[in-house]
């Protein structure tokens, strides 16, 4: 299986002012591309492993050959995480969740504001590089989790529904060290329809 960058559904400048065009371009064409290239390189000599779906590999890294396990964890995680990241944002997004997803958020967190506060705390509390996530377990129960580097909730048996990249390369050109400003602005571009689809798809 040869991996490639997913096609963006919007232009590099479409998420401004929350995310500037230059950051989007570098993030997508340089950082994400590097994860794809290094993942393909790692899998090239392991065809049996390469045939398996990437989420399956990341869900059970112990079954990945030790020689490429770290590469799959880092670069495979980078590819999966970023592919989701682009999908859960859109121009003109940022309204409130609705439908079944809203009901589950209210059930698990109390209300949307409390969920956003908990999610923001996870994003701000991640020391160094990593992600904040809204994830669901096999029963559909929602939780907010944070992972380091390019680790994914898949490794914890959870499905990522919404993810925020808090690596500095995701925001430093515009926000410098002001991660909170980036987190706050990001809510204005969240594609809640896609997040609900992720939840319903189970």
Structural notes for this entry:
The protein folds into two domains: 67 residues, Fe,Mn superoxide dismutase (SOD) domain (Helix Hairpins), CATH 1.10.287.990; 103 residues, Iron/manganese superoxide dismutase, C-terminal domain (minor pseudopilin epsh fold, 3-Layer(bab) Sandwich), CATH 3.55.40.20. The mean pLDDT is 96. The radius of gyration is 17 Å and the shape is globular. It is built from nine helices and three strands, in the order ααααααβββααα. Helix 1 packs antiparallel against helix 4. It has a three-stranded antiparallel beta sheet. With 202 residues, the protein is mainly alpha-helical.
Quick rundown:
The chain has 202 residues and is mainly alpha-helical.
Q: So what's the CATH class of the largest domain? A: Alpha Beta
Main beta sheet strand tally, sense and closure: 3 strands, antiparallel
CATH architecture level-2 label of the largest domain: 3-Layer(bab) Sandwich
- Which strand-content bin applies to the residues? 5-15%
Biggest sheet: strands side by side, in what order? 2-1-3
Helix content: 40-55%
* Outline type: globular
> Which stretches of 5+ consecutive residues score pLDDT under 50?
none
Which value, in Å, is the CA radius of gyration? 17 Å
Number of domains: 2
Task: Identify the CATH homologous superfamily of the largest domain.
Answer: Iron/manganese superoxide dismutase, C-terminal domain
Query: N-to-C SSE series?
Result: HHHHHHEEEHHH
Intertermini distance:
24 Å
Please tally the β strands and state the result: 3
Secondary structure tally, helices: 9
> What's the CATH topology label of the largest domain?
minor pseudopilin epsh fold
């Amino acid at each position: 299986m040869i991996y490639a960058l997913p096609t963006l559904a919007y232009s590099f400048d479409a998420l401004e002012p929350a995310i500037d065009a230059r950051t989007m371009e570098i993030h997508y064409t340089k950082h994400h591309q590097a994860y794809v290239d290094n993942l393909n390189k790692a899998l090239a000599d392991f065809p049996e492993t390469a045939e398996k779906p990437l989420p399956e590999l990341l869900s059970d890294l112990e079954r990945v050959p030790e020689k490429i396990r770290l590469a799959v964890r880092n670069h495979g995680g980078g590819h999966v995480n970023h592919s989701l990241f682009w999908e859960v944002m859109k121009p003109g997004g940022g309204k409130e969740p609705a439908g079944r997803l809203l009901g589950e958020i209210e059930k698990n967190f109390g209300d949307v504001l409390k969920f956003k506060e908990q999610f923001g705390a996870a994003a701000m509390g991640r020391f160094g590089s990593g992600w904040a996530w809204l994830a669901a377990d096999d029963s559909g129960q929602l939780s907010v989790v944070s992972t380091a580097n390019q680790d994914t909730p898949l490794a914890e048996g959870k499905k990522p529904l919404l993810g925020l990249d808090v690596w500095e390369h995701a925001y430093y050109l515009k926000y410098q060290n002001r991660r909170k400003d980036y987190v706050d602005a990001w809510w204005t571009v969240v594609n809640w329809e896609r997040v609900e689809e992720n939840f319903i798809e189970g």
